[in-house]
Design a protein that fits this description.
alpha/beta; Cytosolic phospholipase A2 catalytic domain; 13 helices; globular; hydrolase activity
Length: about 350
């Protein structure tokens, strides 16, 4: 019996707080399948955390190492993990502010009146502790493996900056996950940076210029479409974040669709242009039931629930579209963008 051909892919990992555990499940399922070669990973915020831990795990021990690394990260990032007391207090505060109760809505409105320096004067980000202890950035930078594209937003210019594997530091990853309403800007080379989601969630353009692979699998956390108008303050804020953090992604998808049409019509020729094939792994029906407030839920059982949803979503995708990868896109861009 002939073995199925291996598939070469790029992975684009969205941010989305605790919902990044969904991506953990997707990555685990792709690793378990064993037929995929990952050329590059682009990640923002929680997507950056997943991308870096995936790459670090591969460096340490191949596919099994990547699975172990991701599991250790998500356990460590949870309230069941070995977080310092100050980190636990920050998580507890975030969970309280983003719960769906009327009191929480009042807390959230009050919090919006204060800067991070006032609300979080010690500038404690509990994920820094987890990432610092789990990733050897010196060895990661010096090692071979998938390309890494980690996005952060330059505060002063409003432009995206993409950090690469060979330069990557702990601060760069933390910058990608720096929500300005909670944490102070992260300074890199004297420049302040905020969460990369404002300008790329995640960025796709590095794949075009820095990899030869034309198949991108987008692991989608934030819904593009959500039926009905939100009613509560927390729901409104959540939907605003979803729209904001999807805006740059939609622009890049529109550009991909435009170039594909020009190539198909014979109006662009030569090797300078690529007909990018986009695929998506998502489970919006399951994720939407939790609401935006759950993105701050650091309960480990919740992470495991999201991971299981991610595993099943990836398995469904592979069963339906494995043969399409390398041949045709499976995301209808015109329908997505219309």
């Amino acid at each position: 019996m002939t073995a199925a051909p291996r598939k070469t892919i790029n992975l684009a990992l969205q941010g989305g707080g605790a919902h990044g555990a969904f991506t953990w499940g997707v990555l685990d399922a792709l690793l378990d399948d064993g037929r995929f070669d990952v050329t590059g990973l682009s990640g923002t915020s929680a997507g950056a955390m997943n991308a870096v831990n995936f790459a670090e795990g591969l460096r340490k021990g191949g596919a099994s190492g990547a699975k172990a690394q991701l599991a250790a990260f998500w356990k460590g990032a949870s309230l069941d993990g070995d977080l310092p007391k100050a980190g636990r207090m920050v998580i507890d505060g975030l969970m309280a502010c983003w719960s769906a109760t009327p009191a929480a809505a009042l807390m959230q409105q009050t919090a919006s009146l204060f800067a991070p320096a006032e609300l979080n004067p010690m500038d404690i980000n509990p994920l820094r502790h987890v990432l610092r202890d789990g990733v050897d950035f010196d060895k990661l930078r010096a090692s071979a493996g998938p390309k890494l594209f980690i996005a952060a937003t330059a505060v002063e210019t409003g432009k995206v900056r993409v950090f690469h594997r060979e330069e990557l530091t702990l601060d760069m990853v933390m910058a990608s996950a720096c929500l300005p309403t909670v944490f102070r800007a992260v300074e890199i080379d004297g420049e302040p940076y905020w969460d990369g989601g404002y300008m790329g969630n995640p960025v796709l353009f590095p794949f075009f210029y820095e990899t030869s692979c034309v198949d991108i699998i987008l692991v989608q956390i934030n819904p593009i479409t959500r039926k009905g108008a939100p009613d509560t303050a927390a729901e409104i804020a959540g939907r605003v974040d979803e729209i904001t953090f999807n805006a740059s992604l939609l622009q890049e998808l529109r550009a991909i669709d435009f170039v594909r049409r020009l190539i198909a019509e014979g109006r662009l020729t030569g090797t300078a242009y690529k007909a990018i094939r986009v695929h998506v792994i998502e489970a919006q029906d399951e994720l939407n039931q939790f609401g935006a407030a759950s993105k701050m839920n650091a309960d480990y059982d919740f992470f495991l629930q999201l991971r299981e949803i991610g595993v099943k979503a990836a398995q469904r995708f592979v069963a339906a579209h494995y043969d399409d990868i390398g041949v045709r896109p499976t995301l209808d861009l015109r329908e997505t963008l219309s």
